[in-house]
């Protein structure tokens, strides 16, 4: 899969990831239903308004769960299941 992720910078102290979309599409009817988007994907280039919109689900980036990855020198392997 060829995907242009942001170039890694050694100067960066922390990296921010935007994970699952948590927008409640059924809030207006008092229910809870998310669109199932697993990860934010910018629909436009960095610096443009489109960069804040998710290409997958169309929601604003702020609806996605923010995850800050601190640049600790802890070589822990990812043990995600599922
Ligand atoms: Zn969404």
From TrEMBL:
<dbReference type="GO" id="GO:0000976">
    <property type="term" value="F:transcription cis-regulatory region binding"/>
</dbReference>
<dbReference type="InterPro" id="IPR006456">
    <property type="entry name" value="ZF_HD_homeobox_Cys/His_dimer"/>
</dbReference>
<feature type="domain" description="ZF-HD dimerization-type">
    <location>
        <begin position="18"/>
        <end position="67"/>
    </location>
</feature>
<dbReference type="GO" id="GO:0008270">
    <property type="term" value="F:zinc ion binding"/>
</dbReference>
<dbReference type="GO" id="GO:0005634">
    <property type="term" value="C:nucleus"/>
</dbReference>
<dbReference type="Pfam" id="PF04770">
    <property type="entry name" value="ZF-HD_dimer"/>
</dbReference>
<dbReference type="GO" id="GO:0003700">
    <property type="term" value="F:DNA-binding transcription factor activity"/>
</dbReference>
<protein>
    <recommendedName>
        <fullName>ZF-HD dimerization-type domain-containing protein</fullName>
    </recommendedName>
</protein>
<keyword id="KW-0863">Zinc-finger</keyword>
<keyword id="KW-0862">Zinc</keyword>
<dbReference type="GO" id="GO:0050793">
    <property type="term" value="P:regulation of developmental process"/>
</dbReference>
<dbReference type="GO" id="GO:0005737">
    <property type="term" value="C:cytoplasm"/>
</dbReference>
<keyword id="KW-0963">Cytoplasm</keyword>
<keyword id="KW-0479">Metal-binding</keyword>
């Amino acid at each position: 899969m060829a995907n242009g992720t942001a170039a890694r910078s050694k100067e960066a102290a922390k990296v921010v990831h935007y994970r699952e979309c948590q927008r409640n599409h059924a809030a207006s009817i008092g229910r809870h239903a998310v669109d199932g988007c697993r990860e934010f994907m910018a629909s436009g280039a960095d610096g443009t308004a489109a960069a804040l919109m998710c290409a997958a689900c169309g929601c604003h980036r702020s609806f996605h769960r923010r995850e800050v990855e601190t640049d600790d020198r802890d070589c822990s392997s990812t043990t995600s299941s599922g």
